[in-house]
Design brief:
347 residues; alpha+beta; four-stranded antiparallel beta sheet
């Protein structure tokens, strides 16, 4: 082979390599710019129990499933804008608990103690366990109603991720209505026999009704909205009356209150008032008499609200978090609800 041929060969090889590099760069660019459905639809497998479950390819391409995933992703990013957190892949980005931790802290005012980024699988699952316990607590779901768990979220199982996010979106409200009646086809394999069947998982229901009901609850005005907006001069009189009622009840066990926002924010006096009014004893192990941590206060207030519901008292327009945060309007609503039920006990 002549020197010229050798040089030409090397030149061609160089051009070919350069073209290959350009092609690779173009592929990477296309990958980065590919529609978000590819990232959102990356999904793991549920291997709990006697079955292995995998989302079908048809469902991954379903426009309704893609639209639901996209809306949930956009909602999370809107909520976490101030935290400079951007979710690109639902299953992947939520799997270690870090984003979910930030999300429930923002939505519920919860406090997650361990915020550091977990590296090992064990530490990620420990983190995720803590975060999911917080979420389940705030959603007030019972075991039978929980459609997600640590393993499935960590394994990036799409079904569990969607169930969790839909529950959060419904509870805390999402600006745009989610797609209704979204169903996902799941391939279920029996581990013992390897028999395969297709089952249907319902992810959303009548979301138009859910969205309307949430908006209606948010827009409902009660006597305290009117009091704060139109009759602030009467506020002290109402506070005084409710304070007198509460002190009359609490005096039975030598307790009292002098500051409505402060003295009911840890939930103790609310639990005590319910036990006195209903005539039962609340075991000491079920709540904290001297709570210091936010979680303990939140537990007490949530317990009190549950006791109120069990007694047939309509749920006031407030959250446990707002009571712990010393929101005056929320605290007055709770005390007025108790007063309306038991005012006959005060002579």
């Amino acid at each position: 082979m002549t020197l010229l041929a050798t040089l030409l060969g090397r030149q061609k090889a160089g051009v070919a390599n350069a073209c290959k590099e350009v092609d690779e760069l173009e592929r990477e660019k296309e990958e980065a710019l590919r529609p978000l459905t590819s990232g959102i639809m990356e999904t793991g497998m549920d291997e709990s129990g006697d079955y292995k479950r995998q989302v079908s390819n048809e469902s991954l391409k379903d426009p309704q499933v893609q639209a639901l995933s996209q809306q949930l992703k956009e909602w999370i990013n809107d909520v976490l804008t101030d935290d400079h957190i951007v979710v690109k892949n639902l299953c992947e980005d939520l799997s270690d608990g870090q984003v979910l931790s930030a999300l429930i802290e923002k939505l519920a005012g919860a406090k997650i103690e361990h915020k550091e980024v977990a590296q090992s699988i064990a530490s990620q699952k420990a983190k995720l366990t803590e975060v999911l316990n917080q979420i389940n607590y705030h959603l007030q779901v019972v075991d039978d109603g929980i459609k997600w768990n640590v393993d499935n979220i960590h394994n990036k199982y799409l079904i569990s991720v969607l169930h969790l996010l839909v529950a959060l979106a419904r509870h805390y409200g999402i600006p745009r209505r989610l797609p209704s009646f979204v169903k996902i086809q799941v391939l279920q394999i029996t581990k013992a026999t390897q028999q395969t069947e297709t089952i249907t998982e319902q992810i959303t229901g009548d979301e138009e009704r859910e969205h309307y009901n949430f908006a209606a609850r948010q827009q409902e005005r009660d006597v305290f909205d009117t009091l704060f907006d139109s009759a602030p001069d009467k506020l002290n009189a109402v506070k005084g009356s409710l304070m007198a009622f509460a002190n009359k009840q609490l005096s039975q066990i030598n307790r009292g209150c002098s500051n409505i926002e402060e003295d009911f924010s840890n939930g103790v006096n609310l639990v005590v008032m319910m036990s006195l009014a209903e005539g039962y004893y609340v075991p000491m192990y079920s709540f904290s008499m001297e709570p210091e941590a936010y979680d303990h206060k939140l537990h007490n207030v949530t317990l009190a609200l549950n006791l109120m519901q069990e007694a047939g008292i309509p749920r006031p327009k407030c959250t446990a978090e707002s009571i712990v945060s010393r929101d005056l309007k929320s605290t007055l609503r709770v005390l007025y609800a108790i007063y309306s039920k038991y005012k006959h006990l005060v002579k």
